[in-house]
Write a structure and sequence with these properties.
- This protein has 127 residues and is an alpha/beta fold.
- Strands 3-2-1-4 form a four-stranded parallel beta sheet, with helices on one face.
- The longest helix is centred in the N-terminal third of the chain and has 34 residues.
- 15% of the residues are buried.
Length: 127
């Protein structure tokens, strides 16, 4: 009886190890397959940020751009008829970085986004 239980435990252990090995190999293969498909390169990305009177709230966003080691190809700010100093704040904080400021002809966030989208020449847009 002891020999049967030893053989059973040995076979069970071997099958468990084979199963774990298969799972690891399969998982690595799946990661490799999806790695290239789910990646967006920053050179293919434009970020559009419409704003209206955001002087008091835009600072954290601007600091995140300043502190980033890599940036998207285009960062486009669209002024939706601000009457505060948001525009000046953007220009002073992002001085030296590559960004664009556009002015929307029409009122409203959707139309401001449309103005930004018209200026984009990348594959992907983040709003």
């Amino acid at each position: 009886m002891m020999i049967v239980s030893t053989i059973f435990c040995t076979l069970y252990g071997c099958l468990t190890l084979i199963g774990l090995r298969y799972r690891t190999v399969h998982h690595k293969r799946q990661q490799q397959l999806f790695k290239d498909k789910n990646t967006i390169q920053l050179a293919d990305l434009s970020v559009i940020i419409p704003f209206r009177n955001e002087e008091n709230r835009i600072e954290p966003l601007l600091r995140s751009f300043v502190n980033s080691s890599v940036l998207p190809k285009n960062v486009i700010f669209v002024d939706d008829h601000s009457d505060d100093a948001t525009l000046e704040r953007i220009q002073s904080v992002l001085n030296g970085l590559n960004f664009q400021i556009l002015r929307s002809d029409a009122n409203g966030k959707k139309l401001a986004l449309h103005t930004g989208i018209e200026a984009v020449n990348t594959k992907y847009i983040l709003t």
